[in-house]
Amino acid sequence: MTDADPEDPFLEAGRLLFAGPWDFLTAAPTIETLPPMRGIEIALAGRSNVGKSSLVNALTGRKALARTSVTPGRTQELIFFGVGPQLTLVDMPGYGFAKAPKEKVEAWTRTIRDYLRGRVNLARVFVLIDSRHGLKPVDTDILDLLDKAAVSYAVVLTKADQVKPTDFAARVEETEAKIRRRPAAYPHVFPTSSETGAGLPALRAAVARLIAERA
Questions:
Q1: pTM given for the model
Q2: Strands (E) located in the chain
């Protein structure tokens, strides 16, 4: 699995950014309860149990900043984490097989759609895909929504440590081929492992680059 380019000028900026004093800001169950916009926001989307909370903790070097659970669908709100005024991470409700009443799942879906379409300071959505399974139809639904809303997004492959290296290389190639012609997609995927830390420097650097571009 490839990691960050050692010549990437944003590697150190990304490391320092995520080494900062991250805090839980708020949880918003509806659009009406969203916090005021500040700086830029990076949202994490993905199927239930894909590892969003684990990635938040791994990126920030905090063991329990975001709550993790083996129960799919536990995150039922938009969870906001911040470091200073310049950056907010948003852990979105998982989609797919959330164990909740149909009406509640539909309400989450509406909230997610409204958030993606109307959050002016949303710089990018990282769509997390379990590298053991690859893109599924429920994932492509989200990619379609992001394309239609013209929201920039990139695919992050999680749990890379649980796939054989040869199989993982094929999964990366397969995933990039599927997103290559999507209008709002970043053309390359980010392979990561929250367990080993692999791929995290490159992801941190990508966020630091976004901040510099928006400055």
A1: 0.91
A2: 23-28, 40-46, 78-83, 87-91, 122-130, 153-158, 190-191
Q: How many CB atoms lie within 10 A of CB 96?
A: 17
8 Å CB contact between 129 and 199: no
- Give 35-62 pLDDT, tens digit per residue: 999 999 999 999 888 999 999 999 999 9
Alpha-carbon span 142 to 3, nearest angstrom: 26
Q: Write the DSSP assignment of 142-194 as a string of letters.
A: HHHHHHHHT--EEEEEE-GGGS-HHHHHHHHHHHHHHHTT-TTB-SS-EE--T
pLDDT < 50 positions in the chain: 70-73
Q: Which amino acid is at 174?
A: E
- Tokens 């916090």 sit on residue: 35
Give the integer Cα–Cα distance in Å for 213 and 45: 22
What 3-state DSSP class applies to 69? coil
Rounded to whole angstroms, how far apart are CA atoms 50 and 157? 9
